[in-house]
Structure formats: C-alpha cells, structure tokens
Amino acid sequence: MKVPRRAVLVIVLLVNVIVLGLALSGQLMPSVSLDRPFSLPSARSVAAAQDATGNLLLVNDAQTANAALQPVPLMAPAGFSDRGNSVNLVPGFSISLLAAGLKSPRFMTFDSQGNLLVAAQSGAVYRYSAGGDGSIGPSAAPPEPLASGLNSPSSLAIDGGYLYVGETNQISRYAYDPNGPVAPAQIAVPGLPTGGHSTRTVAFGSDDSLFVSVGSSCNICAERDQRRAAISRYASDGINGELFAWGLRNAVGLAFEPSSGRLWATVNERDNQGNEVPPDLVTVVGPGQNFGWPDCQPPSAKPQTPGADCSGITPPTVGIQAHSAPLGLTFYTGSSFPFSYRGDLIVAQHGSWNREPPAEPKLLRIHLENGRPVSAEDFATGWQAADGSRWGRPTGVTVAPDGSLIVSDDTSGVLYRIAYTG
C-alpha cells in the first residue's frame, strides 16, 4: 500500500522529536522568546556528542603545589608605584607591571598589529598601542577608552574586521581598524538574560562561528532560559543561534586549542556543597554535550538530589581545586618560554570567596601531551598571604606576540607581564 507523502513527513518529524527528546532527557530546556531565531542542537549533533580526551585528570591545590617556585620581586617601571610585592615563579621567569590605573580589567586580546585590547568591567575597552619594535610599553595610566559607556564588558574577540565585546546584556561589535577609532556599535546578539552571573564570554572558532557563554542565574536551580549555564553558537553576525553545550554552571573562559581546534572552557561549579566538593573544571566542550548542572555533580555525575537522572552526562577533562574560580585560560603558543611549555594551558584561578581556608589566587599550568592533559602544577602564586588576605587576583591571561604572558588583575587594577629571562 502506498503511504501518502504527507504521512511519511509526519512520521519522520515525530521520530526526530522523540530522538531529540531522549537525548535531552534530564535537562530542563523550555522554549524562550528571543529577539532572533534560536534553536536547540540537532538530534544528530546530540547523538554524536562524546568525551574527546578519555581519562579525567583530577587534582587539588595540594597536588599542584610546586616546590620549585621562588619569590620574585614585582618590578615597577619608572612612573609606577613600587608596591613592594613579590610573586612566586619558576626560576628563570620575571614579572613586571605593564599597566596600572584600570578598574576591573578582565579579558584581553591582541589585534593584527600587536596592539593590546582590554575589557574593563567599569564600562570601557582600552587599547594599548604597540611601539615601533612591536612591543607594548609600560603605562602607569590608562589611555583614552577605545569604547566607553558599555554594560560591564568582560571579554573581547576580533574576527572579520570587527571587534566583538561581551557585555552583560548583549554582544556588541565594532568595525575595527588597528590604527584608528572604532565605528559606531552594532548589536550582534541582543537581549541576553541578565541577573546572577554577569560575564559574557565571546570566542571565534576556525569556521568563524561566534561562541557565547552565559552563566547561571543562581547556584543550583532549574533555569527558564535555555541560554543560561550554557555555551551557544551563532553566525558571525549574530544570526542562526543554537545551543552548543549546556549543564555548565558558569563557563567563564573559552579558548580554542590551536593544534586540534577543540573548544576548552573553565567552569565555576556550584557552591555550598563542602570545601572539596565539587571540583571546578577545565574541560573540552563539544556540540550537544551536557555537563550535568544542576542535576548532577562532577566529576562522576553524582545525582545532586536522589533520583536525578544522570545518564549520558559528559565527563569533564580536568577537575581542579573546588571553589578556586578558574577564569581566563590560554594555550601557550609563543617561543620565548622553554620548549616544554608549548601547547600547554595556562589558567588564571581567581581564588575562592567562601572556602575555609581560602583557595588562593594563582596561575596553573596544565601540561598536555598529544592533546591529553597529563599533569598540572602551579606556575605563579603569592597573591594571597598566610592569613588569607590578598593584594591581587589574576583574572585574564593571554600570550603576547613576543612570547611573554600578559595577566590582568581585576582587584589591583593592573596588568602584569611574565617573561622568561633564562
């Protein structure tokens, strides 16, 4: 008997809905009214989601402690206030102040001319121009803002001749010239949900897709907006939005691995579960993956409440000290550090707000071999005193064209340069 074509289409549609429903079971994702079309991931991408790295690397602060670190004075160039502080570094490395006078500097990026752009949550984006030798000279006071009056900007990305800025309520973009002012703002992604976690991180994949991370509105709750506690993917102009991965309570930092193109994220996990529970995450993130929040705790997808369905949860790649608040991350792509650092991850840990004793602010190095994390150790410490008081908190981290490491500190309002001097 010949089946009518309309009936076949209805059957296919029903099968796709059932497959997608099964793949998304256990995760609350109601539809939401948006300014532009936005979709759930396809059933095909959900079915293809899998752990990309294999075994979990799970460490805490005691296990990453590095006996080789030694106090190194924080150098203050002419015109800067000498704070008399020191940072513990691996022998052969130095640290100096690159910029001061900023208010809540967060994430940074370099443009094609070697200029350094900084997002400050006080509402501005700054550009530090490269000199004739291609390097950024120390500056004790900020330059005139490249853009101002923004809503708590926290991240930046450059793609296709545009500068993209992650604001709390939207992703804006500006036609960008490294040698001139920016054009008037365009709104690439409007109407992002607000309240709760306020940072919005932007990053571009190799196919020019725009990735946007939005944290949760709470510690543990069922979100009513599917874009929260998730990473979404858009075309570069902000259209064709779709959910990329979810169950990520607050994926603050995003970085693409140069050798493989895989997306990595730092994730601030839930609070008030205990000093060591659960670990914060540094993890590969793939399309259609569910990392468990709020129903399941990492690293083993333990049910948050009895009876929660934690089947099909993607295991994280690296678990680090609980409540250590990892924020910025970057792959070391320079050539001035020792060869063993190339391709490794450097993660800025902001430090805990409610752990006793406090997890300290620091930089963590995760060593990768053939794309797999095999070890983790402290790269820079010393911002926290023995009594738990702090004089600084690393926030963002990026590699400069000369191979040095630039680190932002949103508490001290400064930028550091970490260089290898041998």
Describe the fold and architecture.
It is built from 3 helices and 30 strands. With 422 residues, the protein is mainly β. The strands form 6 sheets. Strands 24-25-26-27-4-3-5-30-29-28 form a 10-stranded mixed β-sheet. Strands 1, 13, 14, 15, 16 and 20 form a 6-stranded mixed β-sheet that branches. The protein starts with a helix and ends with a strand. Mean pLDDT is 90; it is low at 1-35 and 42-53.
Low-confidence stretches: 1-35, 42-53
Structural class: mainly beta
Count of domain modules: 1
* Strand order in space, largest sheet: 24-25-26-27-4-3-5-30-29-28
Question: Percent of residues in beta strands?
Answer: 35-45%
Overall outline: globular
Number of helices: 3
- N- and C-termini, Cα separation: 81 Å
**Cα-atom radius of gyration:** 22 Å
The description of the largest β-sheet is: 10 strands, mixed
Query: What does the average pLDDT come to?
Result: 90
Q: Which CATH class is shown?
A: Mainly Beta
